[in-house]
Amino acid sequence: MLVQDVMQHPVHTTTVDTPILSALQAMREHDIRHLPVLDDGTLAGVVTDRDLRYMTSPLRTDPVEADVTVANVMSTQLITAGPLDPVEEAARLLRTKRIGCLPVLDGDELVGIITVTNLLDSVIRLTGLEKPSGRLAISLNDEPGQLAQLTMRIAEAGFDVRSVLSYYEDEPTDDGAPATRLRVILRLDTINVRPIAQTLREEGFDVVWPTPKPT
Amino acid sequence: MSSTVLYHDRYQSYNFGPEHPFSPARLEMLVDLLDALGVWAAPVDPPVAAREDVLRVHAASLVEQVEAAGQGTPMPNARQFGLDTTDVPVFDEMDAATRGLVGGALHGARRIADGTATRVLQLGGGLHHARREMASGFCVYNDLSVAIDALRQAGYRVAYLDIDVHHGDGVQWIHYDDPEVLTLSLHESGRYLFPGTGGVSELGEEPGRGLSLNVPLEPYTENASYLECFERVVPYAIEQYAPDVIVAQCGADAHFSDPLADLMLTTQLYERLFGAILDLADTHAGGRLLLTLGGGYRFDATVRIWAMLYLMATGHDLPDDLPTDWRTRWTERLDAPITPTLHDAPQDFDIPRHDTIVEQNRRVSKRLMEMIAPIWY
């Protein structure tokens, strides 16, 4: 999934010479928290609702007035993304820089904005279900061919895989040995997962779900 | 309260083959039991639903696919419509067989709508997974939605209650934005079980916002926790919504012995649930109630649960023991032991996460009530 698949576009912008009150009203109107700031059509900074509230706060020793221009309160240290960046890269950038949005630049042109909200939407899409399905969770040895063998057996049984998620179950150990178990969660096009789960178990797969019912 | 029972042997032609869990032998075994108990009275034989009736709810593209599949010539893209899959394999005359089941639910709805029946038990169907344009999870056409549509056409406000262990997704999506249909489903959480949906945040769309209620329950949920959640949500919702009629899908697959799912209910709880449903209809919907069957894949449990449904809906007392000749017959036929009593023997499950499960179910059902509060007021 790429930034261009989840970013906000077209994007609302403001300009360096706009009074901050107008910028705040624009945010209110569109129900957003971040505005890229343009100077003569080129990205010059980003202003957030928090910047505006902080700069105008009477708790400051020198609060600015409502007619001050955006140029005086925006952050100019630009951290941006490209439309073809993977969403996980954008997420990592937001996380490490501790910021809430990335203007998306295609060359010099502002083509969108990606915010934490857009990333949450992408998580919902990545883990979500477009079609009805049943859940099968397997713990695999992290070795070549394990996942291939698993999905081959599922295909042979006539099922369609509707979603795949995976993650390492364990952290690297203290002596630096890497994680060894990969948890794979498949959603299959069936209401009746137990028979294939049982078959896989008999063939030596570590089936985590479904489990036999308690008695 | 007089009851109308709908049934015909043609219901058994909805048959995906001998290896398939949704077996018509369950109906045969049920009717045989009711007969052996001496409570089986000649049921009403409903007409088969017409193509136009099905088209009230389903896309013509799906109906054409099902018709072709039933004529032995499934179209190349049948799988896109959920057909010719492990769950919904094609079989001869599958279109007509499904319309047979749809006809039952629809006839029940029409009898209620024209006032010639109040409490109707459709001994079959409950195909709640079928979507407008897709067959799914053993369900070809959605008999429940066709019935609900007929009740809507007659001007009735409908409350749909689904106690099948799987989320009633087909019915929910078909009526998702309809302010005249409340859907209520209690089921094992979609995080673990097919179809994957049925979370508390699926509340419906305008103008039906707040009228799609879901109670997703943890795997290994037992009687007490299930009943606590049912009592928290269902009576309140029905009372507030004040429907003209209740349609209830009475799947039996939340039973502890069911091979497809992970809830741990016993027949004792089903007796409570059926009693509650009958009471809710009598108190809040003028007695108007359309009951259908649904899932249920352990023959022994499913047939006892549905026999209890029949007995309670038709005003019979519940017997303790089941007829010996019937048991002998079906023990032999299924090559599996049959419980000698209508109810399960007392159960005491050893579930390590018991307290966590109870707490999680409590939290989720309370969250649902908190979420609908601002919409309902």
Fold and architecture overview:
By secondary structure, chain A is α+β, with helices and mostly antiparallel strands. Chain A has 7 helices and 9 strands. In chain A, the strands form 3 sheets. In chain A, strands 7-8-6-9 form a 4-stranded antiparallel sheet, covered by helices on one side. A 3-stranded mixed sheet of chain A has the order 1-2-3. A two-stranded antiparallel ribbon of chain A has the order 4-5. Chain A is elongated and about 75 Å long. The mean pLDDT of chain A is 92. Chain B has one domain (3-376): Histone deacetylase domain (Arginase, Chain A), CATH 3.40.800.20. Chain B has helices spanning 25-36, 51-55, 60-70, 94-113, 143-153, 169-174, 223-241, 267-284, 299-313, 324-334, 354-376, and strands at residues 3-6, 119-122, 158-162, 181-188, 212-217, 245-249, 289-292. Chain B has a 7-stranded parallel sheet, sandwiched between helices. In chain B, strand 6, helix 8 (267-284) and strand 7 form a beta-alpha-beta unit. Chain B is globular and about 50 Å long. Chain B starts with a strand and ends with a helix. The model of chain B has no long low-confidence stretch (mean pLDDT 97). The interface between A and B is medium-sized, with 22 and 31 residues.
Which tags fit this structure?
heterodimer; A: 215 residues; alpha+beta; CBS-domain; Alpha-Beta Plaits; 2 domains; four-stranded antiparallel sheet; three-stranded mixed sheet; 9 strands; 31% helix; elongated; B: 377 residues; alpha/beta; Arginase, Chain A; seven-stranded parallel sheet; 40% helix
